[in-house]
Every structure is written in structure tokens, then in C-alpha cells.
Amino acid sequence: MLTYEYNTEDLTIEEKKNGNDHEFTILIIKEELCEKLLEVRYFFENNDIHTDVLFYTHNKENEYHIIVRNDMYVSFLLLLFQHQLIQSLKW
Question: Beta strand pairing status for 21-28 and 63-69?
Fold first, then answer.
């Protein structure tokens, strides 16, 4: 099982499994982190597979709904870690 930790003063992450996908709702509290999440979004939007990770914005400011295919789950979390949105990642 893969677990991760993040600073709850900077953002909140809600995750749930939905069939073969993982659904995340990420609310950015610390404004500077918006750019980092947009870099993650840019990475997935510009790769060759357009359905691996889908980003949606909500009516709330700085809230994102993200659908991650099961086979891209680890890659998505690694990218969040690389961009310092999550602080630890462990198996």
C-alpha cells in the first residue's frame, strides 16, 4: 500500500477509489503551490496519453478535481512529491 503525507496548512487532499480510477480533490491553501500543481497538470496534458490524468477546476478558487487512471497512480504521486506538494511517499 502506498501512503503519502502533506502539510495540511498548505493544502488538503481527499482521495477515493472509483472503479479503476483514483479521484482526488485538492484544495490549495498556500497560494504559491498553485503554480506547482499547474506544472503537474502541464506534464500530464502534454504527454502522449491524454486520458491518464484528467484535471478539472471547481467553482471554488484553487480547488481541483483530478481523475487518475490506476496505472498512473504511482506516477501521479511521484510528480506531486517531485513538485513538493506532498512531503513523503512510502510503500
Answer: antiparallel
Distance, CA of 33 to CA of 39 (rounded, Å): 10
The residue whose grid cell reads 497538470 is 41
Q: Which pTM does this prediction carry?
A: 0.93
3-state SS of 41-86 is HHHHHCCCCCCCEEEEECCCCCEEEEEEEHHHHHHHHHHHHHCCCC
Out of 3.40.1160.10, 3.30.360.10, 3.30.70.260, 3.40.190.10, the CATH code matching 3-90 is 3.30.70.260
Q: What is the tens place of the pLDDT at every residue in 29-62?
A: 999 999 999 999 999 999 888 789 999 987 788 9
Per-residue pLDDT tens over the stretch 61-74: 899 999 999 999 99
Q: Which amino acid is at 91?
A: W
Amino acid making up residue 18: N
